[in-house]
Amino acid sequence: MLTLMIFLPLLGFVLNGTLGKFLPKAISGWLGTAAVFGSFVIALMSFMDLTGDTTMPERIYTKLFTFLHVGNFHVDFAFQFDRLSAVMTLIITGIGTLIHMYSIAYMHEDDGFYKFFAYLNLFIFNMLVLVLGSNYLMLFFGWEGVGLCSYLLIGFWYKNVDFGKAARKAFIMNRIGDLGLLMGLFLIYDTYGTFEYQDVFKLVFAGSAESNAVNTAIALLLFIGAMGKSAQIPLYTWLPDAMAGPTPVSALIHAATMVTAGIYLVIRSEAIYALSPIAREVVMWIGLATSIMAALIGLKQNDIKKVLAYSTVSQLGLMFIALGCGAYTAALFHVITHAFFKALLFLGSGSVIHGMHHEQDIRQMGGLRKKMPITYLTFLIGTLAITGFPFLSGFFSKDEILMSAFAHNPLVFGLALVSAGITGFYMFRMFFVTFHGTYRNTHHGYDKVHESPLLMTLPLLVLAVLSVIGGAVNLPQYLGESISGGLHHLLSYDGGGQFSPILMYPEHAIELSHTAEIGLLVMAVSVFVIAFLYTRNKYVTQGAVPESDEAQAGMGKVLANKFYVDEAYDTAFVSPIEAAGDVVGNYVDDKGVKGFVDGFGSGSNFISRLLSKIQNGNIEYYLVYMVIGVALLLAFNLF
Amino acid sequence: MMQNLPIPFLVLSFLTILSALYVVTSKNPVHSVLALIFTFFTISAHYVLLNAQFLAIVNLIVYAGAIMVLFLFVLMLLNLSKETEPVKSNWWGISAAITAGCLLLIITAAFQVSGEAVAKNPVEGIGLVKALGKVLFTRFVVPFELTGILFLASMVGAVLLGKREKGNDALISKEELNG
Amino acid sequence: MEVIIIPILASIAVMALGKKNQIWMSALLSMLPLIFIAQFFNHVGVDGGWKTLFDQPWISDNIRFTTGFDGLTGILLLLTNILVPVIILGGIRNDENRVKITALTLFMQGALNGVFMAQDGLMFYIFWELALIPIYFITLTMSGENAFKITLRFFIYTFVGSLAMLASLIYLFLHTANYSFAFEALRAVELSHTESIFVGGGILLAFLVKIPVLPFHSWQADTYTNTPAAGTMLLSGIMLKMGLYGLLRWFLPLAPESIEFYQPWVIGLSVAGVLYGALIAIRQKDMKRLVAFSSLSHVGLIAAGIFTLTLEGLEGSVIQLFVHGINVVGLFLVIELIERSTGTRMLGELGGLAKNNRLFMIFFMLIALGTVAVPFTNGFPGELLLLKSLYAYRPNLSLLAGLTIIFCAVYVFRMVQFSMFGEGKGEVASLKWNEILAFGIITFFILGLGFMPQILIDIVHNSIVQIGQWVSEARGVMS
Amino acid sequence: MSILNIFSQVEISHYIYLSTVLFCIGLFGVLFRRNAIILLMCIELMLNAVNLLFTAFSSYMGDSDGQIFVFFIMVVAAAEAAVGLAILVLVYRNTRSTDVSFLDQLKG
């Protein structure tokens, strides 16, 4: 079953990749969707099995074959379906199915329709390998695989050179992270002699305190990988550029699933992180910095997808804050809810873009709510969810993160709260500018704007429902002991002591009084209210339109230009490396090494030309040489 | 030690070296030839002193008689008796002298260092025709015959070289020779 | 024996047939040895050491024509006899030189098979040099202005190395018990430390030039650029592997005492070469040059892996040399087809080739992915093992060499981007059956080995373990 | 019996010096002169210096082999002179000169 779950999308990829050209678009699209849906159904069944029956083992394990076996180095091609994997799998295949369905309508005009579905299926396959692999190397497989699919899909419209650049940037930035991850893997193998999660964690658990330095190193190296994949400072700049890909891709890969792989990695390696406070501290601060920085940049973006992209980066930062505080459940909770509402927002923005004939600039929009009621409604729900409207999914997950941050360090809580607050500002800004006010586009008439077909709005509705009720997964304690903390129980379930749970270290019980808790809640909600009122006043009541990038000044300009990070990277890394390549290629190699080697040639040529002067054909000279030679010979014999 | 040497030896040696020098330095080839003949005479005299009577005679006949006459003959033939030789530059002469001098120095030095007294064991009559003939026709008979073949070959070679071939009459200029 | 003779006979046959010869004929001829190799695998097997198959006195009683077979030989025979058909199918242009190049390629196949099977030092050397001759003539068919000069440089370069090796072999020969060039006899010679440094250095030089490792690489890019595609493929796909094979088969067993001395140097230079090649490749405009320098980068990693002397490194290097052969031939085939259709291989002059030829695009992408070592393609397992072995040697070196996975992505995708994507500037002619077949073989190995690299390891494991034993014994004696 | 009992009064070293001097004079001539005929003559002179030494050793040691050698050397010298002169005539015919510095076709 497990194998089938993983390989169904691969089958879809193979079929679409080879036969797709000859299939009608509808079949090809539904084939891709069915493959993912099949996986979803199997995953759901397996999940029921796993959690429904207390006699079930901690995981379902399948070994397909030995991938590599060299001396002591042994890696199996094996999968495991445990509680953490199950949650991830359900998100991936569930949201994957919806997005596939959506894409059938969204991409129906595209020439590469079958190719698109082939890539999407391949992505799902790789993502499943990532979360279902039973060892770190399998994770690395999927890790690189999703990077590749991301590359292929970002550059899907390959005729555009800029898109190609964005795709390469994404892949290369990811590879930088991958290198760190790879080094981390080597260190794991060096230290523990295996890649299998279970064995590693057992050894970590049994390890001595001295191994903490190693664990810290491992944790930091793994985090470098997570930085790349989950777009954290300093490797985050690829994600906004990745919006070059088709919108469903942004929804699936760059919001709901792939970018959360970094979170998954850290949660998976909880045993290691738990032992190294330093690493967690690093994770937390980087998450915090990313979260605030991205949120600030998001304030001044005018491309609807870019805003969402920076929002994603910011939300990922929040998740890392949670991880850094040791609140793994909270992070995973936010992964789930974020997957719901961010997919919803992206798909909604796709619907807008579709209705606007591929216009992405929010300044060209306005007043769309009348033309696109379903999109408007669902987008509103998404916006409310992400900004933390009480009792929607985002509210619960975000508050859990904030609370764990407060328990860890009030300063961090304050900063995270600022970041969460800014979320409200940029999200409502985008929402109001897009859907309220007056229509501003001059190229397409208002009458040409249309609501999207059912195939696109259906996933929106489903996701909207999920965004509303998604918080039920892990309700806070103050709503009642019996219904709360579902996810938490799931992850710390140990089968009645039969096996070790996913989270080996019981989370720091958040020791907060109910008053403090409610105080925090009030703070969070009031930040939300302020953001809502301010933006509503500015963009709806006053009808303001964001100024163009050129008109920006001061801080606004810096933000609109994304803190000039791309430019800084260009001057700091790209140009020097290119220059080094030029210097090495043109001077060191051509003049230096080759010159040195050729020097032997021309040197011996020169000497031989000198020597051939001696050989001038005149016998007298020869005689002199001969006599000198004889004399020298004698002299040598003599002395 | 010079003083202890017998006068005839000294005189002979002096003449030998003098005439040899003249051979080398004389501008006129004919004079050179004549000086060389004189040198051969003095060397023959040395042979006599050394009890090598047969060689002394052969030296006179073969060298002074045959070979030198050949030289003279060629000189006459080519009409080279005049001082036609272009004089070489001084430095060339100096360097040649230095080179030759160096060799001289080294050989004598070598002899000084490694020379051992050779046992004097003169045997009466080994230089006579009879004695030499015996050795030559017994132990050295094969080389002796080979010498004959060598002579034949050189004779044929000389004749062949000297023969004027048809169509080869035209003088080849130096430029043509240098191609 | 047969696998050496048949290609040479085939080469004569092709020459005799001349223009009448068709591609499929020569391709079939070049595949004939595969039958025998399959037989070797079946009947001789890869267990139990380097077994002698054929043994006859040759130049003298002690210089024999001895061929052997084991896993390591098997892998390289496979590589050679798979790639030569690929080259013949896709890599040879249909012009006046076709017959000549085909014949030379077949001849090369025989010589290479000889190199990989030779169990006699002198026979190894002779075939080693014999393999050089066809490449020389193939290169000379190019009438580029510098062709002669470049060929000469290449020839002298490799020749100097080879002569050093010959000197070392002769030195060993003179010290054998009964004056024999047989591998076992040469191996049995006990050398003092100093001796082994000189002898090992000579052997090493030949291989390092051929691989090539950093300072000895300056023949590479120019020769690649100025050789017809078939020559480039032969050089990069198989000839370079001669050097790596030589390291494993001849250098490590014959001069194990000197490894300690050379290890840091070779690893250092190799890792430097990894970065050096990658840096240069990033900025190349000529696709052939780009791949040439990427090749420098990749083989540097392999050489470094061998010298870590870990099991992972040695076996990883075998995987990687096989895989690199497949991938680099694939890349050169792609470049050749692009050049054939558009008349240029300069990145600036190309673009948008993906539009007209989807199939070609898929093949190119797969080969590129294999080169970048994405998981599930063949490049990954070998690179993983090599980096792992380097990590065991020095973690920071592994990090440096690991930068190649970033750089490699940069230059390969840059190449893909500028040639295939963007606005269309010309198109690639639709693939003919032979080209599809050639690509098919390559993709089969890219995907197959991506999933099941263990197959290669199982084949080669015993040979490597034996080599490892010899090395560790000798090092034990030394210390 | 020779005219003089030379062996009692003259050391062999004197003959060695003498012939060395003669040899070097011949050598000097060979180096210095450009006329091919003189060159040949100088060579004869060198040969004679060697002959003298051979004979001296032969007589001092009472072994006739040295004298046999001188005999052979003379033979070779004669042959050499004959062939050499023939070549010389030929060269002269072609170049109208016996100057050896014209003959530089061996240039490297």
Count of beta strands of chain C = 2
> Strands of the biggest beta sheet of chain A: in what spatial order?
1-2
Shape of chain A: globular
Distance between the termini of chain A: 93 Å
Order of helices and strands of chain A: HHEEHHHHHHHHHHHHHHHHHHHHHH
SS-based class of chain C: mainly alpha
Largest sheet of chain A: 2 strands, antiparallel
CA-to-CA gap between the ends of chain C?
41 Å
Query: How much helical structure, as a percent, in the residues of chain A?
Result: over 70%
Rg estimate of chain C, integer Å? 21 Å
What letter string, H or E per element, gives the SSE order of chain C? HHEEHHHHHHHHHHHHHHHHH
Q: How many strand elements of chain A?
A: 2
Sheet bearing the most strands of chain C, described? 2 strands, antiparallel
Q: Into which percentage range does the β-strand content of chain C fall?
A: under 5%
Briefly note the structural class of the backbone of chain A: mainly alpha
Overall spatial form of chain C: globular
State mean pLDDT of chain A (0 to 100 scale): 84
- Counted by DSSP, the helix tally of chain A is 24
- Greatest chain-chain contact: B-D, 90 and 82 residues
Percentage of helical residues of chain C? over 70%
Write out the strand line-up for the largest beta sheet of chain C, numbering strands in chain order.
1-2
Fold and architecture overview:
- The complex is a heterotetramer of chains A (639), B (179), C (479) and D (108).
- Helices cover 71% and strands 3% of the residues of chain A.
- Chain A has 639 residues and is mainly alpha-helical.
- Chain A has a two-stranded antiparallel sheet.
- The N and C termini of chain A lie far apart (93 Å).
- By secondary structure, chain C is mainly α.
- Chain C has a two-stranded antiparallel ribbon with strand order 1-2.
- In chain D, 76% of the residues lie in helices and 0% in strands.
- Chain D contains 4 helices and no strands.
- Chain D has helices at residues 6-9, 12-32, 36-61, 65-95.
- The longest helix of chain D has 31 residues, at 65-95.
- Chains in contact: A-B, A-C, A-D, B-D.
- Chains B and D meet through helix 1, helix 2, helix 3, helix 4 and helix 5 of B and helix 1, helix 2, helix 3 and helix 4 of D.
